[in-house]
Design a protein that fits this description.
The complex is a heterodimer of chains A (440) and B (173).
Chain A: H1 3-12, H2 26-35, E1 45-48, E2 52-55, H3 59-64, H4 67-73, E3 81-84, H5 94-109, E4 114-116, H6 123-129, E5 138-141, E6 155-158, H7 161-170, E7 173-176, E8 180-186, H8 195-206, E9 215-220, H9 227-235, E10 244-247, H10 251-259, E11 278-283, E12 290-292, E13 300-302, H11 303-306, E14 313-317, H12 318-321, H13 324-334, E15 344-348, H14 352-360, H15 363-370, E16 373-374, E17 395-398, E18 414-417, H16 420-429, H17 435-438
Parallel strand pairs in A: 2-3, 2-5, 3-4, 5-6, 8-9, 8-11, 9-10, 14-15, 14-17, 15-16, 17-18
Antiparallel strand pairs in A: 1-7, 12-13
Helix pairs in contact in A: 8-9, 13-15, 13-16
Chain B: E1 3-5, H1 12-15, H2 27-30, H3 42-45, E2 51-54, H4 66-73, E3 78-81, H5 86-95, E4 99-101, H6 103-108, E5 115-118, E6 123-126, E7 129-132, H7 138-146, H8 149-164
Parallel strand pairs in B: 1-2, 2-3, 3-4
Antiparallel strand pairs in B: 5-6, 6-7
Helix pairs in contact in B: 7-8
Classes of the chains: A alpha/beta (440), B alpha/beta (173).
Bound molecules: iron/sulfur cluster.
Chain lengths: 440, 173
């Protein structure tokens, strides 16, 4: 099985003689463990039982494919699915309301344990906060940003709806063992430069297909990144084509998991002598704030080159940058200031918990006083379904992860992507602004 | 049998324009728009058993299922590419469409060459030259042979059910 490919790979690497005893990457170790095999090699296809299956508003389309089978066999395990209503909440029209209703009925009928109704948060944030994503786990989801949970050492990846339907019935699926790219981050980030700038910088460098079909491991000086920062980075792995993106468990991870009450887990990490497809190193002390320009995520430029570009709407939030630290940095910049009268500043907390924490510490009050519109915790403007859709000719500066044409609901609009600090600074001036200019 | 040859980075919008995503779902609805923005002659002339050769990153972009459903339903025997985008590759297997990564075969092919594909043996013959590619494991081949993932899942469930509930009908395959 996959021998020819394996032999080819191994013959490339001098000194590696024996497949079983050779150093392994995170993906190789984790997938071997989940497939019940002693070892696996890149290119091999394994059958695995994921720990969880994530679906969201698309649950209604998924169960629609297998109505007869559900009636006959039911859901394989009521603990397996994690269903979060987030994409268009509260429902924007009758059709969406009916979909939500169908999902709620499904949840009741099959006694699905992990259901989170509209308002709990964006699916990926909910999976993290509620402790479904734990080190060494395997999670698949019918959403491409499922890759985010590598932030806490989970192997997580996106699948299509047909596959989600099948997993609901059988509890298992197949995965191809990916090759791995090792990225080492060296040095310390400067003030007002963030995890978002790091990942945008990397995607700008390797391109939007630079990690196609690969697992990405982050190594180096990662202790400076919170779990939230790591989530931002892992979230955007798919924008470089990656299958999954992952960090090692360290004190930061352990501290976070303790705080949310997660105790049982078995971290997995690469061997020091693992073989990689590519090894890249970035000196992040040299990175400055950047912006991804329309209409591709890899069209990345330093903010200084774009300074002065007029904008109509700003969005801070989404699953990429909608957590406490993101809003606190925005509040630090916006405190005592006003959003430009030519701008709508939308705040989209990734979850109700995030919202409440920001309410308690005064962050929301600062943002509101500055003139921001606070939206319910969901996807809203990010996918252009409702809340903050753009008009032709308008420009939005956003902390989301995609700037594809039409993503925010209008083909003739433009989306620029940046960090929360850059978006907050720009909201004050109504123009793209370097955050380092506002507060030094 | 005809061979259709395309270049690198053929995205799902070229294979099936996004504007039809919410109006076309069945093979009949999909077929007239297949490869519309890439090769307008394709939909009208494609025949059962035809082969597609393509470059790198075939099927990148959105995860919509229509391109795969469409190519499968018009009877494409195999798509042979230098590489595939991952969600497209999975969807190919899940819908029972044969996708083969074989850069050497793609680079060797020139118009008019005779092609033979044996997906089960992992072999392609281009103009008399033999190229091999790794054979997929039985589980994946079984998904393809069943006609896609949901068909396969149905067969699997029926087998399991036979054990769990002897009253139910059995299957012969
Ligand atoms: S916030 Fe945006 S990127 Fe994240 S899950 Fe929602 S729609 Fe997708």
């Amino acid at each position: 099985m996959g021998k020819t490919f394996a032999e080819k790979i191994l013959s490339k690497k001098s000194g590696v003689k024996d497949v079983a005893s050779a150093g392994k990457t995170f993906a190789e170790k984790l997938l071997a463990k989940k497939a019940g095999l002693s070892h696996v090699v890149p290119g091999q296809i394994v059958t695995v039982k994921p720990d969880h299956l994530l679906t969201h508003d698309n649950t209604s389309a998924i169960i629609g494919k297998i109505q007869d089978e559900l009636n006959e066999y039911g859901v394989v395990d009521p603990n397996l699915p994690v269903i979060v209503l987030d994409h268009v909440i509260p429902a924007a029209n009758e059709k969406i309301a009916s979909n939500h209703k169908k999902i709620r009925e499904f949840v009741k009928k099959y006694k699905i344990k992990n259901f989170f109704d509209a308002g709990t948060g964006i699916c990926h944030q909910v999976v993290l906060e509620k402790g479904f994503a734990v080190p060494g786990s395997l999670i698949v989801g019918s959403d491409s940003h499922t890759c985010s949970y590598g932030a806490v050492n989970s192997f997580s990846t996106g699948i299509d709806r047909t596959e989600a339907a099948s997993i609901l019935l059988t509890g298992e699926t197949w995965l191809k063992v990916p090759e791995t790219i090792r990225i080492t981050l060296k040095g310390k980030l400067k003030k007002f430069v963030s995890a978002k700038d790091v990942i945008l910088h990397i995607i700008g460098d390797i391109s939007s297909s630079g990690a196609n079909y690969c697992s990405i491991e982050f190594h180096g000086d990662i202790g400076q990144f919170s779990v939230s920062d790591r989530f931002t980075i892992a979230n955007m792995g798919v924008e470089a084509g990656a299958k999954n993106t992952v960090f090692q468990v360290d004190d930061v991870t352990v501290g976070y998991l303790k705080k949310i009450g997660v105790k049982d887990y078995n971290p997995v990490w690469a061997d020091p002598d693992a073989s990689y497809l590519k090894e890249l190193t970035y000196d992040i002390s040299k990175i400055s704030p950047v912006v991804a320009c329309p209409h591709n995520v890899d069209n990345v430029k330093p903010v200084s080159e774009l300074a002065g570009t007029e904008i109509n709407q700003c969005l801070i939030g989404t699953c990429t940058n909608g957590r406490e630290n993101d809003f606190r940095i925005a509040a630090e910049i916006l405190k005592g200031k006003k959003v430009s009268p030519d701008i709508r500043l939308l705040i989209l907390p990734a979850s109700k918990t995030v919202f409440e924490n920001c309410l308690k510490d005064g962050t929301i009050e600062i943002l509101s006083n500055a003139g921001a519109i606070i939206l319910p915790s969901g996807c809203g403007p990010c996918l252009g379904a409702h809340q903050g859709v753009l008009a032709p000719g308008e420009r939005c500066l956003s902390t989301a992860n995609r700037n594809f044409k039409g993503r925010m609901g209008c083909k003739e609009s433009e989306i620029y992507l940046a960090s929360p600090a850059t978006v907050a600074a720009s909201a004050i001036h109504g123009k793209i602004t370097d955050p380092r200019e506002v507060r030094k | 049998m005809r061979v259709w040859k395309y270049g690198d980075n053929i995205n799902t919008d070229m294979l099936f324009p996004g504007k039809y995503t919410y109006t076309c779902a069945t093979p009949e609805e999909i077929k007239p728009h297949l490869l519309e923005d890439l090769d307008p002659s394709f939909a009208g002339n494609v025949k059962n058993g035809d082969i597609i050769f393509a470059g790198k990153n075939f099927g990148c972009g959105s995860s919509r299922e229509q391109p795969v459903l469409g190519l499968k339903s018009v009877g494409i025997q195999a798509v042979i590419a230098e590489s595939f985008a991952r969600i497209f590759y999975r969807a190919g297997i899940n819908q029972g469409l044969v996708l083969i990564e074989c850069p050497d075969a793609v680079k060797t092919y020139s118009e008019g060459d005779k092609i033979q594909v044996d997906a089960k043996k992992g072999a392609i013959v281009v103009a008399g030259k033999l190229f091999s590619f790794p054979i997929l494991p039985n589980e994946i081949l079984a998904i393809r042979d069943a006609g896609g993932l949901l068909a396969y899942t149905r067969l699997k469930l029926k087998k399991t059910k036979k054990v769990l509930n002897p009253k139910q009908h059995t299957i012969t395959r």
